[in-house]
């Protein structure tokens, strides 16, 4: 079997994130979005506290495959503490990366560990696993921004 | 070993996937097609294409004859009492929705009950659930025994005088069990309910006799019995069909159309509105001819042996949970399992890299996944064209994938 290709997809960083996900759990008084991957039943719940157009707190729960769990964990690292506009840009860049397009060195650097998920582009059936948490975050940012704007 | 190599009949089995020989173990999702089916369909379009039931010319008459001959073939296969009890749809899903939109719409009212099994595929569940919501009826579930077989005691409790429809699958697409259809028919009929049987996972693997089963409706898909996609079959008892108003109207299903009224055609044309999938039906005919030539005795001997090999290999591997019965005697050719601490998707991607094609996910049976307290499983399913080497490659690949994720 092509263990090499398996290793290319499941790099150590990814396996580590999946085994001990960062920001796994719940934060009180957060806005939450739960998304499902209907083809496999994966479920990701992302929570955020947004204040002053900035992500103050972020966490996730859920169950799913290595790729979806690792991607969610990495996503929380990449977005934690960021201004909403920066976070939205990073989510857009991640989407570019995962569909096989290239980013500038700076953009890639900003994505941190998410850069290793670029190999998922070679496994079209797994792209949805990698993007689920990022889609949830994107929805929260849109909601959060609205709520934020109204209260100001 | 088999004396005839059926693999030669299936051109796709010669292809390679990810630089490995194709090991196709997703037969429960769809079966591969023998050359005989591919040829029959190509020949129809190359030499025989015409619409059916309309033209007076020779080609149209021949197309109609070939199409209608498949109705006879299916009637024979299922041992229907009359050929008119068989009609063609798009799929099992379409057939089941058809029963919901005709029989269900006409005979289910508020307060009635519809009984399904927890193991149902979404196709034999969501249409009933939505009908129940529309009508104010109650959808009830029959549970499982600890080994994954249908719990008949529970069925006796769930099927009551309020039950109008009992809808169950003959063979599970996850647990590998075959359900006691005759007993369920007795229970349903004792309460004047009808029994709708989802035969999607049965027809390719066992002889089916709708009269012996006493099924009121029986549905299956051509693509799971070595035929093409886009064709399904619905069998219905004639006395029931006579009571039904068509759910679809248009060409072919009429005998006379006036300004304000229409007289419908006889059964079965009444229920086949519009141009049917003529070529697909002819492909189904070729598939059934092929399957009957192989014979169910051979099919079952090979599939039993491979299922035993699968079950043995899986149950002996540490850290593997097999869902459904653990013994081959109670097991059809479908085996669902999980690897401890490894998600099914990751297992399936690993196997795919070894050319081994299996399904991972909820298998369109989310209520069953909830019942089993899992979010997904991996499923390997064999057909008679698989061989020991296929199962061996699967088990070897599974071992390396397991080791990779455990290390
Ligand atoms: C038990 C069962 N019922 C129904 C179906 C639906 O069949 P189709 O998708 O061909 O309509 C399937 C197959 O996916 C099945 O396994």
From TrEMBL, chain A:
**Which molecular function GO terms apply here?**
iron ion binding; iron-sulfur cluster binding
Q: Which residues form the NIF system FeS cluster assembly NifU N-terminal domain?
A: 10-129
Q: Which Pfam families match?
A: NifU_N
InterPro entries for the chain: NIF_FeS_clus_asmbl_NifU_N
A single GO BP: iron-sulfur cluster assembly
Q: What family classification does the UniProt entry report for this protein?
A: Belongs to the NifU family.
- NCBIfam families named in the record: SUF_scaf_2
The UniProt entry, under PANTHER family, shows:
IRON-SULFUR CLUSTER ASSEMBLY ENZYME NIFU HOMOLOG
Q: What is this protein called?
A: SUF system NifU family Fe-S cluster assembly protein
Q: Which organism is it from?
A: Lactiplantibacillus garii
TrEMBL record, chain B:
- Report the InterPro entries cross-referenced here: Aminotrans_V_dom (IPR000192), Cys_dSase_SufS (IPR010970), Cysteine_dSase (IPR016454), PyrdxlP-dep_Trfase (IPR015424), PyrdxlP-dep_Trfase_major (IPR015421), PyrdxlP-dep_Trfase_small (IPR015422)
Q: Which UniProt keywords apply?
A: Pyridoxal phosphate, Transferase
What Gene3D superfamilies does the record tag this protein with? Aspartate Aminotransferase, domain 1 (3.90.1150.10), Type I PLP-dependent aspartate aminotransferase-like (Major domain) (3.40.640.10)
Asked if the keyword Transferase belongs to this entry, the reply reads yes
Whether Transferase counts among this entry's keywords is: yes
Choose any GO biological process term that the UniProt entry carries and state it: cysteine metabolic process
Cofactor(s) essential for the protein:
pyridoxal 5'-phosphate
Residue ranges annotated for the Aminotransferase class V domain, each copy included: 23-394
Q: Which GO terms describe its molecular function?
A: cysteine desulfurase activity; pyridoxal phosphate binding
Q: What is its EC number?
A: 2.8.1.7
> Which catalysed reactions does the entry list for this protein?
(sulfur carrier)-H + L-cysteine = (sulfur carrier)-SH + L-alanine
- The enzyme's main class, written as a single word, is transferase
**Superkingdom as given in the UniProt entry:** Bacteria
Pfam families given in the database record: Aminotran_5
PANTHER family noted in UniProt: CYSTEINE DESULFURASE, CYSTEINE DESULFURASE 1, CHLOROPLASTIC
Recorded family membership: Belongs to the class-V pyridoxal-phosphate-dependent aminotransferase family. Csd subfamily.
Task: Write the protein's name.
Answer: cysteine desulfurase
